[in-house]
Amino acid sequence: VFPHGWDKTYCLSYLEGFKEIHFFGDKTYK
């Protein structure tokens, strides 16, 4: 399903960045 370069560390860092963006967006929204 994922490209060969997508390992668990990349997935985790991507999810962490997504949560950070979502968190900051939520703060600015409120």
UniProtKB/TrEMBL annotation:
It comes from the Eukaryota. The keyword Zinc does not apply. Pfam families: PMM. Gene3D superfamilies: HAD superfamily/HAD-like (3.40.50.1000). Keywords: Magnesium, Metal-binding. This is Uncharacterized protein. InterPro entries: HAD-like_sf (IPR036412), HAD_sf (IPR023214), PMM (IPR005002). Its cofactor is Mg(2+). One of its GO terms (biological process) is GDP-mannose biosynthetic process. The keyword Oxidoreductase does not apply. Mg(2+) binds at residue 26. One of its GO terms (molecular function) is metal ion binding.
